[in-house]
Design a protein that fits this description.
NreC/VraR/RcsB-like_REC; 2 domains; Arc Repressor Mutant, subunit A; DNA-binding; Tscrpt_reg_LuxR_C; Rossmann fold; alpha/beta; WalR-like; DNA binding
Length: about 220
């Protein structure tokens, strides 16, 4: 199955570079590019991509605003943020808005391919320590009261959420808990529903912001 992609960046060399790299993979197809968030909305409406690589800082309409609008639409694509700085508050805002993860623009080709496939498969790109460090740092600086919904989680669901926040995949969680992967998927679905969040990335942000998970920084 081919994953359809749109690349959004205000720098032509970055757009062209990512598009050329992605086009080398048989299972990935770039169906559009855009130079700002406003253009991205139009391109995505016309092409219906599975994953959007979205720059954070752009003229006309920035990446965070564009991400919010994209994810408010019916059957939205997954969004993978592109940034130059790993501890970028704007990226944190994008994650809280529902983006599935982020990549630094100097990412290697293999890391780019892996990230797109992970996000397309419905996983949040939270395994890299730098992503968890970003969430943890800004959750520490801007703490929120614990979500009342956390009290609705069963002990096993709470454990699954902690493992999600540690960056484990469904398969890794299944191995850790000695249960089947389908069982883990069921637990994750229940966690998302009870927390009233869109996806795994937002569930992990909630875990950090509420203090359920304390990040190890540095």
């Amino acid at each position: 199955m081919t994953t359809r992609l749109v690349v959004v960046d205000d720098q032509e060399v970055v757009r062209a570079g990512f598009a050329a790299l992605l086009a080398t993979q048989d299972d990935l197809a770039v169906v559009g590019v855009a130079e700002n968030g406003a253009r991205a909305l139009a391109v995505c409406a016309a092409t219906g991509p599975d994953v959007v690589l979205m720059d954070v800082r752009m003229p006309v309409l920035d990446g965070i605003s564009a991400t919010r609008r994209l994810l408010d639409a019916p059957d939205p694509p997954k969004v993978l943020m592109l940034t130059t700085f790993d501890l970028d508050e704007h990226v944190y805002d994008a994650l809280t808005a529902g983006a599935s993860g982020f990549l630094l623009k100097d990412v290697t080709a293999e890391r780019l391919f892996d990230a797109v496939r992970v996000v397309a498969a419905g996983e949040a790109l939270l395994a890299p320590s730098v992503t968890r460090r970003l969430i943890g740092e800004f959750a520490r600086l801007r703490p929120r009261p614990p979500s009342p919904a956390l009290a609705e989680l069963t002990p096993r669901e709470t454990e699954v959420l902690r493992l999600l926040a540690a960056g484990l995949s469904n398969g890794e969680i299944a191995g850790r808990l000695v249960v089947g992967e389908e069982t883990v998927k069921t637990h994750v679905s229940r966690v998302l529903r009870k927390l009233e969040v869109r996806d795994r990335a937002q569930a992990v942000v909630t875990a950090y912001e509420s203090g359920l998970v304390v990040p190890r920084l540095g």
